[in-house]
Write a structure and sequence with these properties.
single chain, 552 residues, alpha/beta, FAD/NAD(P)-binding domain, Cholesterol Oxidase, domain 2, 2 domains, 8-stranded mixed sheet, 6-stranded antiparallel sheet, 13 helices, 28 strands, binds flavin-adenine dinucleotide
Amino acid sequence: MLNILKRPSRTAYDYIIIGSGSAGSTVAGRLSEDKSKNILLIEAGASDRNIFIQMPAGLGIPLMKDRYNWKFFAEKDHITESTEGPYTPRGKVLGGSSSINGMNWVRGNKADYDSWRDCGLSSWSYAHCLPYFKRSENYQQGDSAYRGKSGPTKIIKAEARNPLFQAFIQAANDYGLTLNQDHNGATQIGVHKTQRNVADGIRHSASQAYLYDQPNKPNLEILMETRCTAIEFSGADAVKVHLTRRGENFSVEVAGELVLAAGAIQSPQLLMLAGIGDKNMLADAGISVRQHLPGVGANLQDHPAWCFEYSATNPNDSLASELSYLGRLKIGMEWLLSKRGLGISNHFEVGAFLCLTENQTIPEVQMECIAMRGDFAPEGIQIEPGYQCFTSIQRPSSRGKLWIHSADPTESPKFKFNYLDTDEDKKLAIAAIKATRDIFQQPAWNGRLTSELSGCDTLNSDAEILQWAYAHVESNYHPCGTCRMGSDDQAVTDETGKVHGFNNLRVVDAAIIPSIPTGNLNAITIMIAEKIADSILGLAPLEPEYILRNQN
Ligand SMILES: Cc1cc2nc3c(=O)[nH]c(=O)nc-3n(C[C@H](O)[C@H](O)[C@H](O)COP(=O)(O)OP(=O)(O)OC[C@H]3O[C@@H](n4cnc5c(N)ncnc54)[C@H](O)[C@@H]3O)c2cc1C
């Protein structure tokens, strides 16, 4: 039973955490293991106890709802043709984005963390991160040198029985990718059956794993539907947070530390509202400067993605044949009664990591596939027989930015991704599109799919492909980097998430990622929170684990 309240029971807490997402739930779960401390977890969104959040196959439904999704839109950038910039959903619910995400469990590449170390973050090498990845997860199938067997988040591997998934694996083999049994283990490259954070048929979000599944903790109080609107300071100390719940305003005192875990869009916004950010931007927004930290909101990164869509020539091949209205009812009933059947799948059952540039050994592209055409747009869900492959480029060098234009905390911040701003990213996008076409033209498909529906197969020159890339680019929903760790003048926090210039203010979420890793960000954000929770508690970090085998 969680200790969910409408008002805090105390005037002051040792630790106050703003945001209960992948990072916030993890930090709250770990900090509350110290029974001598009082912890308050504050979440703007509502409860996650909804069957469509818990049933993995229901993932498209909460995504459509304003109740669970902040539904941000980026600003248009130089390449965007539509009237709005890329749609950027973010969880507004207990568990944050981990309660509305696709549940693909991907831990990134060894080289990602070693590159963080090489940029001066000596405690963030792969050897330092590995024990925290292992502490966070419970995956029974992998090599225990790499995989955790008893952590809070339970992971299972997809079966990928659908004939179109089998065709993808075969086509990727014929293209030159071998079947990788564990892309979170020794090697990332290859085609794989996906791993997902689902336990006993239920989404294993950060709130499920770190809050509900843990022993009762009277020292952890949770306020939902409560938004932090301002932070009050005395010198270099955060002393109070101002909150609003259903139109009523109140405040609570910070006795120890304040942890911002509001995500890569809203943690920098909270800093900016408190006068911490670039002095010129703050002046334009009418906010007086507390600390000139120009890196707040800079360094915005994401994985630009393209959705390749095909119709199935035999509709029975596609999962869509099982997702008619009656089919969905049957799946829902089976899930409710036995937690079995299609209801326990996140639909993304196969994927791949591949290199495209000569001599490159770290994957540059990720593919994630579903055996239907499903459009989970804000306007509604549409399901058609077919196949979708989401191809995204990894570690792009383009950088975007985030800023605010108003001191009103309820106004969404503005942000711009600047996808494909660099020549390097343009080249990679062209290569990624060609590689996807190649895989879908392999004989293994055996006429099961039509040609690509948006005309991608008929493009000839690189210039044509680049224009298609501009017109069809989407967010892969991995914004990060807006309060990056480091010690240079653009860094926002130190290696433990502590905001430069302040004694007791941290950012702990995807915002502190210095450079975007190779893969989806949920497992990575949880690892970051696991690691910094030890710093907050003053515990010695887990011993680094140096593995001699290569990981790529
Ligand atoms: C639709 C979607 C699909 C995705 N699919 C995958 C996937 O399959 N695999 C994967 O690994 N990653 C996936 N991701 C990405 C991953 O889920 C996120 O990168 C990760 O959850 C970010 O964690 P976070 O803790 O930084 O932020 P979040 O989890 O977004 O948490 C931030 C929390 O802070 C709350 N908050 C914000 N402002 C305030 C405030 N002022 N006061 C109080 N509370 C506030 C928010 O409501 C939210 O609950 C997906 C993301 C989305 C949106």
